[in-house]
Every structure is written in structure tokens, then in C-alpha cells.
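To whoever is covering the structure queue this week,

Two jobs came back overnight. Logging them here so there's a record in the thread.

Job A:
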Amino acid sequence: MELKTIKLVLLFGAISLMSSCYYDAENELYPSVTCDTETMSYKDDVSPIITQNCFACHRNNSTISTISLEGYNNLLVQVENGALVGTITHASGYSAMPQNLSKMSSCNISKIQAWIVQGALDN
């Protein structure tokens, strides 16, 4: 193959790449994230969030913290005194939790807050 033919093939290839189809569907690139907080359950929604985010320090017989969030009754104490929401939202006047980490996801915070608004039931 001569040099002129190679140059034409390369040029054609470059033009083909630049003019190739471009697919840009916003809903696939940036899918909407929903956070269902309509019917919250202690057992199915809140307890797993607390276990995952808080039990490293706040379980029964912890040597790290004197506050236990293990079990409904222990968590309810922190709900009723306002400390649970204050700490997880990093509100002024409360120790930000998880300590030395960023806040838990806004969806998890919303689920806990919705559960409280819905009566903080042991369900």
C-alpha cells in the first residue's frame, strides 16, 4: 500500500470517529434517586440504618460510648430527648455522628426523621 492510500484511510477513519453517533440520554446518565419514606418501620428501615452506622460505637456493653442504641427502647430514649436527630443531622449543640465522619446519607436521615414523625413505632 502506498503512503497516499494509508493517509486517506487514516483520514477517513478519523472523520468517521469524529462523526460517529453520540447517545446522551439524561435519565440513563443521571438516574433519579428516590427515597421512599412513606411507611417507615423500626425493624425493616430504622434498625438496619442504626446497625450499619452507629453500632461500631453505640452497642450494648461498648467500651467506646456509654450511649447504647441497640434495641428499640435504647433508641427511643435518644429519639425522645432529641439527641438522635440532632446528632445525625450535625445540628448545632449536638455531637456530630458518626464521629469524625461525614453525615450518613440524606435518604437514611430522612427515613429516620419520617419514622419519628410517624410515631417512632416499634414495628
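Job B:
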Amino acid sequence: MDFRLTPEQEALKREFEEFFKEEMKKAPPGWSGSMESMFSEEGFPFHRQMAKKLAEKGWLVRPWPKEYGGQDAPIIEQLIFSEVLGYYRGAGVDIFGVGMLGPTLLAAGSEEQKREHLPPIARAERFWCQGWSEPNAGSDLASLTTRAVRDGDDYIINGQKIWTSGAHHADWMFMLARTNPEEKRSRGLSFFLVDMKTPGITIRPLYSMEGSHLFNEVFFDDVRVPAKNMVGEENQGWAITRATMNFERSNVGQMSGLKRDLEELVEFCKETKWNGKTLAQNPFVRHQLAQLAIEIEAGRAMSYRIAWMQEKGGLLMTAHAASAAKVYGSELAQRFAYTGYEIMGLYGQVKKGSKWAPLMGRFESDSQLCMGMNIAAGTSEIQRNLIAWVGLGLPRTI
């Protein structure tokens, strides 16, 4: 594998960089590029405005077929875009609609579903959320209990979803519901597309421990969903869900974001003195920074390898590699947050908004939020199981 870019790809990367470097100057105060800032009341209007600009440039869904709003661009060009987006803490990409549902519909949706939903995503007119987790079905998603019962041309849905990121701003939700209660686990689940304006849907906020509003719980009380909004066959939603999860995990944006964070942490260490010397002169600090730089570069190589594998053999062969990148990225981000917090000492506990908060209080916030990274989008334990079963061919039971 040769990860060097062609001259054309380098030129495309510079174009992306020039755009985000200029546009991100207009971000609201405190913008960090995180989902917490993206779905905040101040951040979401900016996020949506940026999405419109990306759509006008044709950058939002570049790998999609032209007939659905894309440019038939190769996966590597999308990876370059995501890398630049992550580095500049960019806004405008709906990770649920663009990154997960769109590719899923391209692979498993009906022609009617593609034509109804893909163009509005490509034009940044329709934002999505993900209705998977439930109070008693998070990591063990196959145990979910939300019911969908057929009634003529509709399904009637009752139940509850939780930890639904961005539901308070979403136009539509893709979700799993149990259509066959006689079947156990994943065999009785179906995949639905639900308009969030449908009567019977109630959204309640769930605030994070540092005060941000990203998560929600969503209640369904006799919600009628047209049968045509089921993706794939009845009771076959689990296979579609597994494919959807894999679209989420190339992870290059996270690595480039961490690279930017590291550059700023290094500058802080060069400028900040302790016992008469800068932190950058402290051997312990230098070792920690060097270790982070090595791990970030290793993660970036993993992401490029996944893109290479997808171009060579398609999405299915990368399931285990995507899980490996997810585990690696989640745990690296957690180590990074704790390392930055430790280097800053007591100042690392000062919240953003204070003049004493280094780097706008990023590590005070990250050290709280990072605890959920090993859970969100599939726990590290589940990912390691997938690596063992799919990648290594190990048995599921001993």
C-alpha cells in the first residue's frame, strides 16, 4: 500500500483546506467540532448553514452516484475530504444521513426510497438521527423491545429509544423495531425510516455531565409509519443494521482532529513554564507528546488502509478492520484527553469561558465526555468480539 497522494489528489486536498480554513473562522464562540457543539442551540444553525455550502459545492456526498446527487468520486477522495474536515473541526456533514443512512440505502434501499431520501440529503435539506439504543438494549442491541405491528398499509410503533444524538434537530430517524415477537434476538427485527413530525413522537433531552445537550430519549406512542418506509424485508433489519454500522467507522476525521489538538497542546507546552522551564523541556511531558504523535499516525494509517480495502474489495470485507479502527480511535481519544488534562495540572480543571482555562477549557470538557467513547457507536467489548469472529474466524463459544 502506497498512501502518497497523486498530484490531482493533492490539489483537491488544498481546495478543501482553503475552504474550511476560511469558513471555520465564522464558527460560533466555543465551537470545538464535536457532536456536542454541533447539536447545541448555538452550533446547529451554523452546522446547517455549512451543510448548504458543502452541498452547493458538490462535496457533501461525492462518492454517491450522480443520479442521487453525488459525483461518483472514488472512496479515497472522500477520505481526503473527511481528513481535512476533521483537522479544521469542520461543520456541515450529517454523520447519520450522509455517513450512515445514505450508503445503506444505496446498498439495500428500494429505488423509491433512494429517490425520495437521497437527493434531500445531498442538498442538505434533510437531517437524520439514529434510533437504535433503548433503556435495556444498548451494547446488546439485539434485545430491543420497541414493537412495530402491521396494520394495513402501515406499521404502528410503540416503545422508547434512548441516547439518540441530535434527535431534537433531526427531520427523520432511521430505527430498528421488533416486528416478530416470537423470534429471539436479531431474527425478528426490521429497519424503518420515520418522519420525526409524525404524531405520537415525543423527544425529551438528556444532558451530559458537563452540561451539553447532545442526547435525547424518544418515545413512540401509536406512531403510524407507512410500510413502504421499511428498508429491506420484514424481520431482516439486523443484516442492514450491521452494514450501517460499518459505514460509520473509517475514523480518519477523528485522527486528523486529534492531530490538530496535539499541535495546539504542543504549542501550549512550548509557551507554559513550570519551575523556570517550559513544559516542552520536561522529559516526561516530551515523552507523552511523542507517544501521542506516534499513536495518531498509526491510527491514520489504519484509516487509509480501510479506504484502500473498500476500494479493492467492498464494504463487507472491512467489517473487522472498521471495528479495529473504532476500538483504537475511542481508546486513543480517551488517553489523549487524560494526558492533556494531566499535563495542564490544576488549570486543566478550569471550565471554558474562564480566562484561566487553557485551550478554551477543552481538556476539562474532554476528560468528562471521553468516558462515553468506549460505549458510543458500539462498545469496545462488542468491537473486539467482531474482530475475533469476523476478522480472525474464532468461534463464538468455547
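Note for Job B: The first strand starts at residue 128 and ends at 131.

Please reply-all if you pick these up so we don't duplicate work.
Q.
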